[in-house]
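hi! just following up on the protien thing from before. the input was this:
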Amino acid sequence: MGKLQEVVQLDLRYSAWATRELLQACARLAVADQNRDLGVSHGSILGTIFHFHASERFWAKCLGAGKIPPLHEIAAEPVPAEIHLEKLSTECDQVARAFEDWFQSTTEEVLAQPLSCRISAAVDFPYVRWQLIRHVVNHSSIHRGQAIGMIRALGQKPPNVDVMSYLLKQHI
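and the predicted 3d structure came back as:
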């Protein structure tokens, strides 16, 4: 496995682990608190997780298909009024598996190739696959941090989802 593959695999596995840790912490909250609009990010803790999950699902589908729709066709999926933790957890696991399956069939050369996205009538933007993964992980990390802040605002102890914690757990 090449260095680029190692980094992408680390990013994908870390992000899946961090989301699982966050969802497990949510399971300790009352359902009302999971869905309470705290006025941050996408309203509730689960609303925020749903948002980054829907984005991950979109990008996993694009990577699997090897194409990105034109920018004007891309829209954020609306957050449902109420989200059920069990269903969201299952769906997050499915997306993590989709990324892992895609990655297992991807070479270092493919990771360095772009997927083109039409961003205007005259401009196509080349999203390099490994950079797209970095975007996905970064986007999810930002929103996990917001959800962790909401857990703290509810007076509860959030999980430690820092990448260094993930790396440490891999070596223990």
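Residues 3-27 form the longest helix (25 residues).
The chain has one domain: 3-171.
cheers
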